């Protein structure tokens, strides 16, 4: 048995959970879901359901006049969205939520 300590973050509260997994040491249990998610993204790009990160980055940098310094792609109930951290020319960092299918900036803060 392999013991794993998981640090969980729920709404700002951090808690640690100890799990005992019946998997042999070195088994990539968590990489399976990441690989599946990666395949989902590639298939969605091929189907035209979302733009590539490079296109979204160019659109966001042009519209918001800054440089993308961080990104995250996530699936929501409204479809795929990119969460981008953008450093503006004045040095301030903003967060932009961008619709991954259209490149439309949904919200900024």
TrEMBL record:
PepSY domain segment(s): 52-108
Alphabetical keyword list: Signal
InterPro entries: PepSY (IPR025711)
A Pfam family: PepSY
Signal sequence bounds: 1-16
Record has Electron transport as a keyword: no
This protein's record includes keyword Signal: yes
Protein name: PepSY domain-containing protein
């Amino acid at each position: 048995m392999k013991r794993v300590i998981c640090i969980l973050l729920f709404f700002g509260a951090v808690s640690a959970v100890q799990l005992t997994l019946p998997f042999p040491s070195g088994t990539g249990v968590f990489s399976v879901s990441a690989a599946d998610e990666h395949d989902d993204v590639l298939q969605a790009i091929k189907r035209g359901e979302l733009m590539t990160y490079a296109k979204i980055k160019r659109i966001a940098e042009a519209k918001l006049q800054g440089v993308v310094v961080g990104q995250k792609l996530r699936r929501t109930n409204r479809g795929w969205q990119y969460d981008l951290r953008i450093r503006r020319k004045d040095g301030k960092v903003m967060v932009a939520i961008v619709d991954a299918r259209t490149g439309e900036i949904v919200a900024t803060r």
